[in-house]
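>> received
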Amino acid sequence: MQRCLQLAEKGLGYAAPNPLVGCVIVYNSKIIGEGYHSFFGGAHAEVNAVNSVRDKSLLSKSTLYVTLEPCSHFGKTPPCTDLIIKHKIPEVIIGNKDPFKMVNGSGIQKLKKAGINVTVGVLEKKCRFMNRRFFMFHEKKRPYIILKWAQSKDGFIAPDDKSFVKTQRMAKKIHRVSNEYSHMLVHKWRSEEPAIMVGTNTAQKDDPQLTARNWQGKNPVRIVIDKDLKLNRSLNLFDKKAGTLVFTSKNGSSKNNPGFVKINFGHDVLKQIMHHLYRENIQSVIVEGGAILLQSFIEQKLWDEARVFSNESLINSGIAAPQIKGKILSQEKIDNDTLTIFKN
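>> returned
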């Protein structure tokens, strides 16, 4: 099952909105086949694992391990349960039951009815963490929310506005608190999530591109809050390098990029945005700033994971970093940066 998890991770950034799934087939204590779900719409992990077995006659004497319950319905591909039954695989070991309403235990029951010995719950917590975006989306009906920022040793994420105006070139240099390796890692993260979000001030002052240009992979959909549609259309967010969604109180027009979504700014703005993303089948979002937006997510307890870079640099005065409390999942050094990952 540990090998299944290693395989499943290879689909991160490509399989969504489908789950990350890895599969191995074992005969006589040796792996004879393995596969993972490599991209949305492509063959599932079980199919790729079965297809990789050279001698198909061994399948009827083998055990199939898979991180998530095999599907039992026709989607973009046929049911994996039918393939397992067809090859008379006698035993299936599963990490998690699938929370998706079209499966949700029906795959397990179908296998059992066919006389297959099924075990569920092997490395269950690790398998669930691997698919934390998928489980959050189907169980809580909202995207998995990742907060991200970088802060100086003295607790600032950027210099103040006066410093920014007076020494704009220097301020922009200071504004990137994290180092080049951390910056590259952030671009890798962007390629792994379907959406990325910033507030109005960050969009206007920093003019971010919010793309994964320093890493191979897909660009996320860019999301910005622009209540009164005041953002300049010459900003990088409105180029054609990635899709953009603008949440506003006004009526906007669009030729697909950007897309305007009118919401009520007098009531639960963030929850309205998350509900819209859920309807659009967006399973996760990275929130990259600014401080007010990040703190709003924290205060409303509307976050799942926070990735915080800190280093030894000093800004002295400026925009204070968000204040967060949560369980520390991990902490590591990236050159002169320290990356701390929190769980809500």
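>> The longest strand covers residues 144-151.
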